[in-house]
């Protein structure tokens, strides 16, 4: 078998796509929530005319612009991989998934791009009303963009509304069923809420950082920290509820994934335990050193203490997902979700006591949790995508039958190139964002720099030249 550093072409192609997707989604997960946050800040400024809200808007607008740009650039690479590494998959699923991805560009991306310039530069040029409308359209556009992409991904997990043609291609039969497939509403709600929480904890971490540095009198810092803690307290419980609903939907349509998430190698006819920790041994088909709570898994998944749950012993070996990755990434996501809830409840207690801006341990906790949303989102997507293996279209198209006829050397070389370029380019962008975050918002915050006029390659226009000429001639007259 052709290999590169011991990995075959299929695994290398999976690693490459997983790396680029994980790197890419960091930015949309942030910009989706940040676009909505900016719209709220702008609305509060227009209603109250409090300079602190305008300062916050300008402060986060610069960070949003950079994040949005890096998200767009990092996402372009993925579309090319459908043709390079996954041509068989693209050929077979193209009639269904191709139009959906085109709709994302024609609706959401065009909406975002069309109003982004007005949002960034148009406050003094178009008036408050149109500028507010532009902010709303950018926020709505990011949500619509996520909806189309989540629909594409959900169809791969719960395919419906298709027929298989004579050539083996998936052909659309009912677009409504294709788009609104069984897992789509759960994934969309869970993903959007995760994006909002991710942004809330970044904003809260920045606010906590500046509070710890002694900027308690800065009203903008206090507002950003307070708003983020309200989001944590209100949205974290909602996210846990949505995650539970998503898990029950996954149990219905992808039971093998849930078995791997729970670490259930064996069936439990009289109630399954909740395994908190352990070392999955997939070859032996057992969970070593398991720390478990009896029957709690049945209570969570079936709402019945003694409900039977099937295990991976009911799944053929060649259809089992990689248990260790799914088991541990799921626990990372759950642990961070519980920590987010804890910070939210802690902030409510501090707010009730009147110590929200003075309780330094709360600020340290919020600062520590600032990147937690990115980790949770990445862990959640790893649980979802690795848990779908060995299929690209669940139950219908195997991953091994989806790749292009490429050698491992070619895929491995391009993977190394991606890793080097991504960490260099986007690492520099991330460092610049951290630099912007390192200073507090000021009352005279400049926002995105606006040139006094259009940039002209000639450096001078005929009107300016005529004006300069008349200025020279006047003294002579």
Automatic annotation (TrEMBL):
Membrane topology: Multi-pass membrane protein
Chief site of localization: membrane
Keywords, comma-separated and alphabetical: Cell membrane, Electron transport, Heme, Iron, Membrane, Metal-binding, Transmembrane, Transmembrane helix, Transport
Transmembrane intervals: 21-47, 59-80, 100-122, 129-150, 193-212, 224-242, 325-349, 361-382, 415-434
Source organism, top-level taxon: Bacteria
Pfam families to which the protein is assigned, alphabetical: Cyt_bd_oxida_I
Compartment list: Cell inner membrane; Cell membrane
Annotated region (Disordered), positions in chain: 441-477
Polar residues bias locations: 458-477
UniProt family annotation: Belongs to the cytochrome ubiquinol oxidase subunit 1 family.
Protein name, as recorded: Cytochrome ubiquinol oxidase subunit I
Organism for this UniProt entry: Tropicimonas omnivorans
